[in-house]
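dumping this here so i dont lose it
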């Protein structure tokens, strides 16, 4: 059978607000997530030996049962009831690891889509989304992609109507030696802010409504300029990670940058520009400083869909 190839794009957070702490230990969030065109590629080949194996172009990524690709494949197989299903999976990694770009979640979502197709299982989008939510809070977004409000743990999606021409271009930077553990960032947030969390569903809903009717969504519809971006984890991570302080300072003094923020739990950082030409010009202008500080940089487009068969 022909191999199946899936594109697994990264996301950035245009908004990340920590509302409160839930009884399941996760944080209640209000986010705007946006797919960008920096993507990994997952290739799936079927085998009949009942084994799931993963190879990756980078040797610093675990390929055992801790990888979300393997976990997604095992869950899909278990739900299918066909114990003999096997797959050889190969990941071409381009999204930086441990960066706050949902690379691992997007890879897991790609495995769900690729193997559902390759194994001919016929699970619906809703069924795949439910499996994705079991595996990780960001994974349902990675399946659907585009520009979405994400509530709950991050898995409750509400599409946003955007004017595609008004979506900004992205200059993304990350220091290759820096990485932030997401549980650490949320744990630190709890230590620092725990007394200031909202507690009632009515308060949560008020914040969701403020986001729905606020200036960020109006800007994405093309009705006004972009407001400053909010990421509550940035206040937690910035004081602890030198490359985040340095990178934010660099991006903030870049001419033409419409807004600057950290993505997710970091440490990747981004600046938004009116178009790709301006993002590219900024990257060239910043190149000597980025190189001197050791940052990697990518210019990306915002796109309208998540993981997809190639
Ligand atoms: O869902 P996921 O496995 O991606 O979450 C990783 C960790 O991030 C969780 O174990 C938790 O510590 C933290 N988290 C959280 N609240 C969320 C999402 C993640 O506290 N809404």
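and the seq i came up w/
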């Amino acid at each position: 059978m022909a191999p199946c190839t899936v594109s697994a794009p990264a996301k950035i957070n245009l908004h990340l607000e920590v509302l409160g702490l839930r009884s399941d230990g996760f944080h209640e969030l209000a986010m705007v997530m946006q797919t960008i065109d920096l993507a990994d590629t997952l290739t799936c080949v079927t085998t009949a030996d009942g084994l799931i194996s993963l190879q990756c172009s980078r040797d610093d990524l675990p390929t055992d049962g801790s990888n979300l690709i393997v976990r997604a494949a095992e869950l899909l197989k278990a739900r299918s009831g066909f114990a003999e299903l096997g797959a050889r999976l190969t990941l071409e990694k381009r999204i930086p690891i441990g960066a706050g770009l949902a690379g691992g979640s997007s890879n897991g979502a790609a495995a769900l889509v690729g193997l559902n197709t390759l194994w001919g299982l016929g699970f619906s989008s809703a069924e795949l989304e439910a499996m994705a939510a079991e595996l990780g809070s960001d994974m349902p977004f990675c399946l659907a992609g585009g520009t979405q409000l994400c509530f709950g743990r991050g898995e409750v999606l509400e599409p946003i109507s955007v004017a595609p021409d008004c979506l900004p271009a992205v200059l993304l930077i990350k220091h290759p030696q820096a990485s932030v553990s997401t549980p650490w960032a949320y744990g630190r947030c709890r230590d620092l802010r725990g007394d200031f969390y909202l507690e009632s569903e009515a308060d949560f809903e008020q914040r969701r409504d403020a986001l729905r009717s606020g200036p960020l969504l109006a800007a994405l519809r093309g009705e006004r300029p972009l407001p400053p971006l909010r990421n509550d984890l940035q206040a937690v991570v910035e004081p602890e990670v030198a490359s985040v302080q340095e990178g934010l300072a660099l991006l903030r003094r870049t001419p033409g940058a419409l807004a600057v923020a950290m993505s997710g739990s970091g440490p990747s950082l981004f600046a938004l520009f009116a178009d790709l030409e301006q993002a590219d010009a900024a990257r060239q202008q910043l190149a000597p400083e980025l190189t001197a500080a050791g940052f990697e940089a990518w210019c990306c487009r915002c796109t309208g869909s998540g993981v997809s068969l190639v």
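DSSP finds ten helices and twelve strands in the chain.
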